[in-house]
Design brief:
Chain lengths: ~600, ~600
């Protein structure tokens, strides 16, 4: 079944006479017979000044209203996958496409373009207005069917019937997403066929990876270049005369070992490499490479880095244990075990990493996650190459000026961590110092349905060399890096968020002696007065890479106890109490309007094994 | 696990310095060691004027905040039945208990009363302040454990330690609900053991009722008294000389037949009774009573009233086919079939009936409905004697003045209905004229969680004689009637409603050739400006009984198509379109904040068989 939604006509009178949220629903699509809203004047040149601002606001409200109707219908139809959408782009679109982003998270199958939508260019050929052009180019990611109509009615002086479809083909060929997909080496090209496909995250600590997995990840041209650069700079920062020991913790089939050797050669330093690996299959490859390539430069050590002993302590510990959310493949726990290998002044590459979150709308991902009829599938974080998604948050503090940016930092891990109590073997007696929690406030500028959260990571390898899949910073830190798709934290039930609302997200990283897991929960609010609270927004902290870090969150992580765990000692708990009273001040002026359940309580549905 | 929630201290400074929503949570209850909020002055005499109003509003906001904390915790715990609540009534309560009603829908297991809560009466004995007295008396319905503390600290001049518990026993003995339960013949007495117990509604058309079921319902002293009175008055309104024919459609074991004969005798009219019954077991009883009691006055007819033929047409058709929601046991369909028996000027007793709805909060009922791990159980209306429930709606139009009263009328059925097209046998060819729909707007004054809807009916038997289980009118129309508990329409997922929100409920009665079912759906809104729309609130219509009918809804039912049915012709559809444009005007100034799913779409989970 297809449903046609007509995006609203640009109507400066709409402030007095808003279009009904129900009038946007037309009957089923019949190409060449697109319905027309009678009596609505179409202005391509908007009036000036305040009236223009009002008209734009009203237009946005109308586009929101058209989406509201769609949302109500598909909710009532329980996200049935047989229900898809036809967008009628006949009416002109606003210049700012922010409000249209929400359609990218919906099942848009047809886009209807009557000839009357086209304007004439200087030569008299039919072309589309700029905003419609941009929207069509962006929509090409979803491969919609474009339905042209009235093309034989000679509305334009030049080009005839074919000019319309030729122009659409031109838009497709110049679409940024189509171009990126065709470019060898791009993430979009690499990820073809994986878009919006849910993958369970790897458990490299519990499971031994297959050779094909290593091979896939070894292909990444950017990740290992940055690792080599980080090791190279770390070597340069050490005196030439002294022997330097490097330990690669988790060497796999050896890509980091090779990069370390290359960095040693380039930096002209006297250094030796230990390579630790627990996977016997990968170790065979390492042994082969030692014989054929690395004679005398490398020593191999077989075993778990949390248990084995090493001949001498290292100056530089190099590891590649990061997951899409940073710590989600248990890098903190593994490196805790390997810190015994490090000299007092030794360093870790990576030296730190942070986890980042953003609220996401995607009917596709929601439907994928619930297609397995099991609670577990809706409480498991997945690795996903996002495509039909819309990040619901906006930059700016929201009505109350109390919200952080569009994508927000949850927490950070640093290595080596000097403040942990160690037992006689040099290991931490419990894992509670690796628990984390964050409470993030997002501004939601446009109405939308929350289906889950996008998770990203950013790592500092050494100095200003890093790795990032943060959507706003990845291009300046590690452009074209292929190894990580983002994480998707689903919700059991969608949560409707009105325009100008606030979303308060709580996320925890919790642990017992055998497992690590995440729990997540969210509440929605509306501002009931316009007065910002006395809380000052925090200053941004300096960043790696060339992009400035726009996060308003503190650089040190914040902590709060899990709702289900009584007895865990969480470091910084006194700070959490202070934040609670901040929280109560923040509640002043906010009206709660909804909440999700607590997801994955006590790790019942998903966890990583230690 | 018990959770202690301390109802907030009366604090006039609270406007400047609101209590944290989290500070209300104390540790587990330890009797005799109730926690005290430090530094909060307790005023038993509130200050006057505007300051007093502000203080009361702030106090209500704080009680709301205490409940918010509880709601968040029990949601996070997924309504675990092992989680119960201890209320600390130490601080004084406000004079208006409206804001406390929400606790009646929660699992309050303990009420803590430190001796300091008690004030001294004229003689120096400890007594409770009036609002606390009332709250305790009302709470006795749930049989909480009362935890007294500090009773040996000699805070009061007279009575000693025992005076506190003696006083509580006195409150219990004088509790209206306890008194009602002890009174023979009251609904509360009759319903003992059935409180908050979900029963599937009867299907007397599809199933033949058991003898024990007839026996239970024949005990109702009020229902049959009102039926006799209605028949009596109908007879009085007919001339004495003419022979009058009464037909009892669905005679069961004969209670209505007996009442008709009694009415004939009292009214001194020349009348004859036909009794139609389809249940062969009940028919045996009827035959026995004909021989022993009704010789010559009654003729029995065996068969379905929609199919049998009758010797002569009737002046008065008497039936008792009503369910808790009026039409939910298919009275409209059965009476359609029996209208063939009626003379052109004949009447039906009942002559009309209406269905009524109110939004309900009850964690108990929600937990009961979902205890069967099946979608069906959350899309089935149940018959329930309500106890641990709270009706969330308030009277008054809400912020926007567009809402109806606390309990609202959905639709009406009238018999005989003269405008239905009939086939050659005198039967309607389809059942579409018995479809109904309603869109109801409720004002929600206090924050709460919507778990479903309460359904009630009211019937006009004849003139101003009726039957009603409408909570505000039953006592004036049919006090102490036992036969019907209300209906409960559950929700699949609870819907959080903030204070001063609006709830728009859609409910449909739909039909195909074999089944009749209900569908329901709700959306929540907040008012974004204080301006009432240009819609005028509708005038109330005159009512039966002595109570005035406070409904603001039109007396004729309104119609709208089902979201899932395309091709049903619904009478009054043109009217529905007009209402849609009203609806769009109403949306002006409202911000949608949430919605439920559509329940029981296409009758997939529950239906009545024709």
């Amino acid at each position: 079944m297809n449903l046609a939604v007509r995006l609203p006509v640009y109507d400066p009178h709409a402030i007095q006479d808003p279009i009904s949220p129900l009038s946007g629903v037309a009957n089923k699509v019949t190409p060449n017979a697109t319905p027309v809203v009678p009596g609505s004047p179409r202005l391509t040149t908007p009036p000036n000044g305040q009236k223009q601002i009002n008209a734009v606001k009203s237009l946005e409200a109308q586009i929101d209203a058209a989406w509201e109707v769609w949302d109500l219908i598909r909710t009532i139809c329980e996200y049935n996958t047989r229900l898809s959408l036809a967008l009628d782009l006949g009416p002109p679109l606003p210049n700012s496409l922010d409000v249209l982003n929400k359609w990218s998270a919906e099942a848009v199958r047809y886009i209807c373009l009557p000839a009357s939508t086209f304007i004439a260019n200087a030569k008299g050929y039919p072309v589309l207005p700029k905003p419609t052009q941009t929207f069509i180019r962006d929509s090409m990611a979803h491969r919609p069917n474009i339905v042209l109509s009235s093309v034989s009615s000679n509305l334009h002086a030049r080009g005839g019937e074919d000019a319309y479809s030729q122009y659409i083909k031109h838009l497709e060929a110049t679409s940024p997403i189509v171009l990126a997909t065709r470019k060898a080496g791009s993430v979009e090209n690499f990820a073809q066929g994986y878009q919006d496909f849910l993958q369970a995250p790897l458990q490299p600590l519990m499971d031994n990876l297959h050779s094909i997995t290593y091979q896939t990840f070894e292909q990444d041209p950017v990740k290992y270049r940055n690792y080599e650069e980080a090791v190279y700079r770390a070597l340069l920062d050490r005196p030439q005369a002294v022997r330097i020991v490097i330990c690669v913790a988790g060497a796999g089939r050896g890509p980091l070992v090779a990069r370390c050797l290359s960095a040693i050669q380039r930096s002209d330093r006297n250094a030796f490499v230990y390579a630790v690996e627990k996977n016997p299959n990968a170790f065979v490859t390492l042994q082969h490479r030692l014989r054929s390539e690395w004679q005398g430069k490398v020593k191999l050590l077989f075993g778990d880095m949390r248990q084995i002993t090493i001949d001498e302590q290292a100056d530089i510990l190099v590891s590649e244990l990061l997951g899409s959310f940073g710590d989600n493949e248990l890098s903190p726990e593994c490196l805790d075990g390997a810190m015994r290998f490090l000299k007092p002044g030794g360093i870790s590459i990576p030296s730190s990493y942070t986890a980042h979150l953003a609220p996401l709308s995607s009917s596709k991902l929601y439907n994928e996650a619930r297609s397995v009829k099991d609670l577990k599938s809706l409480e498991t974080p997945y690795v996903v190459m996002f495509q039909a998604v819309n990040v619901l948050s906006g930059d700016g503090g929201g009505a109350s000026s109390r919200c952080g940016p569009k994508v927000q930092e949850c927490w950070e891990f640093e290595h080596p961590r000097r403040d942990v109590v160690l037992d006689g073997r040099g290991l931490p007696p419990t894992n509670t110092h690796n628990t984390r929690s964050a409470k993030l406030n997002f501004h939601i500028p446009h109405a939308g349905v929350l289906h889950g959260f996008a998770g990203y990571f950013e790592a500092v390898l050494y100095g200003n060399i890093g790795l990032s899949i943060h959507p706003h910073r990845k291009n300046s830190i590690s452009k074209d890096m292929l190894s990580w798709f983002p994480l998707f934290f689903p919700l059991r039930e969608p949560l409707y968020l009105p325009r100008n609302s606030e979303l308060h997200v709580s996320i925890w990283r919790l642990t017992n002696q055998r497992q690590v897991w995440y729990e997540w929960h969210a509440e929605s609010f509306l501002s009931i007065d316009g007065t910002p609270s006395e809380m000052t927004t925090r200053q941004s902290t300096p960043s790696i890479g060339t992009a400035s870090r726009s996060s308003l969150l503190p650089s040190s992580p914040s902590f709060a106890s899990s709702p289900l765990i009584d007895a865990v000692e969480i470091p910084g708990e006194r700070k959490a109490q202070r934040e609670d009273s901040d929280y109560s001040r923040m509640m002043d002026g906010l009206l709660k309007i909804g909440h999700t359940g607590l997801h994955n309580a006590d790790g019942r549905s998903s966890w990583m094994g230690l």
